[in-house]
Amino acid sequence: MRVASPLRCRGQRGQSLTEYALIVVLVAIVALAAVKLFGKQIKGLFEGASKEISQGTKDTPVKVP
After folding, report:
1. Could you give phi then psi for residue 57, rounded to 5 degrees?
2. Euclidean distance between CA atoms 14 and 6, whole angstroms
3. What is the pLDDT of residue 20?
């Protein structure tokens, strides 16, 4: 029967941590690329929605209970 040495377990734990760090970095790179590609379009959508909301609230009276 073999007993796992503490060094072997530590190496596997470090390997898992490194893999998770690489995944986080890759997700961050993809997110930055998406913002770079679609940032102006998304900004335009939010600006348009903001204008419609602000114009709609000016014409509509607010009812206070």
Report:
1. -80, -25
2. 12
3. 93
What residues does each domain of the chain span? 1-57
| pLDDT tens readout for residues 1-37 | 555 555 555 556 678 888 999 999 999 999 999 999 9
Cα-based angle 58, 62, 65 (whole degrees, multiple of 5): 175
Q: What is the 3-state secondary structure (H, E, C) of the chain?
A: CCCCCHHHHHHHHHHHHHHHHHHHHHHHHHHHHHHHHHHHHHHHHHHHHHHHHHHHHHHCCCCCC
Overall pTM surpassing 0.85 (yes/no): no
Q: Which of 38, 57, 60 is nearest to 49 (CA)?
A: 57
